Amino acid sequence: MSSPAPNLAGPIGQYEMMLMIRLFEQRVDRLFDEGAIHGTAHLCIGQEACAVGAVAAARSTDPIVSSHRGHGHFLARTGDPAALMAELLGKATGPCMGRGGSQHLCVRDLAFYGTNGITGGGIPTATGLALSQKLLGTGKVVLCFFGEGATNQGTFHESLNMAGIWDLPIVYFCENNQYGMSTPFRQIMKVRTVADRAAAYGMEGAWVDGMDVEGVREGVAAAVERARAGGGPTLVEAECYRFCGHSKSDRLLYRSREEEARWRQRDPIESYRRKLLASGVPEGVLLDAGRRAAQKIEEAYQQARSAPEPTPQQVLVSPYSKESPGP
Predict the structure, then answer these.
(1) pLDDT tens, residue by residue, 302-319
(2) Please, which residues bridge with residue 171 across strands?
(3) Is the pLDDT of residue 247 over 80?
(4) Which residues pair with 209 in a beta bridge?
(5) Which end of the chain is more exposed for a tag (fewer CB within 10 A), N or C?
(6) Is 246 a catalytic residue?
């Protein structure tokens, strides 16, 4: 799979991408309800600013390692909802030929090194990628996504310790959406913020507002440039909120409707829309961005729905093998 990098350089491109991610996730939610997609999915509705802001701060060649909640990361990097929709529907035109699904997305030629169904499972992979960039002198910086629940895993502490010792070019980006499945963040760690944990490994720690796409981009950009200049890793914590359940089976019985309403007042897409209008962007420009985003998602669904199923020959060959017959 190859796709031109999406336009995240300007505010309109970032706004449109956040809208596209929101609309994509809402369509996936409906497809699960209809039985068109099987298994499970961890949607990022409400966390769009984290994906768009962080990916916009990196270069298109900087490796990304995602988490179990990775659709937004994938779309921000690839700009290709049709490929992602095909993968979720199990079609041969998906980047992993329909066999990776939501939890095992990987597009090496776009430096997207995978979502991961294991909590904290991508952190060692990202650390290894960062070590390889340093040894090879590529000048690339790795961007590693995970949730706050992963920061209590051994993989987190071991990886950050190694990255700190070796001054690896990596940005560890924690999307703190307040709950590890159904457990409140404040019940599982004593520190004031996840970013405070950076001090234990001799690296920089930074907190950003995960509901503000520009704030995320600025914070991650500083960390990326520091790493690229040889300044070592940074742990960035983005405080955010998922408007949906942990997964499709989550009935959200553990949080109040009042809490949800408070966070929805800070919806990252609507907040950015108001900010752009206040800065002088014509409303028609934003309406056009919304129409483009909606059209892309509808076209992606139609393309994926009509895409071919994998053949028996394809199923027997690794999607990453040079012998793969492809779709």
Answers:
(1) 999 999 998 888 878 876
(2) 143, 234
(3) yes
(4) 239
(5) C
(6) yes
Question: Which member of 68, 217, 226, 242 is catalytic?
Answer: 242
End-to-end CA distance of the chain: 10
**What value does the mean pLDDT of the chain take?**
93
For the stretch 183-201, pLDDT in tens is 888 898 999 999 999 999 9
Extents of the domains making up the chain = 12-315
Given 3.40.190.150, 3.40.50.970, 3.20.20.105, 1.10.1060.10, which CATH number is that of 12-315?
Answer: 3.40.50.970
Please report the DSSP string for 138-206 in residue order. ----EEEEEEGGGGGSHHHHHHHHHHHHHT-SEEEEEEE-SEETTEEGGGT--SS-GGGGGGGGT-EEE
Q: Which of 179, 246, 272, 273 is catalytic?
A: 246
Answer yes or no: 38 catalytic: no
Q: Biggest alpha carbon distance in the chain? A: 56
Is 113 noted as a catalytic residue in this protein? Answer: no
Predicted confidence at residue 322, as pLDDT, reads: 54
The catalytic position among 30, 38, 59, 254 is 254
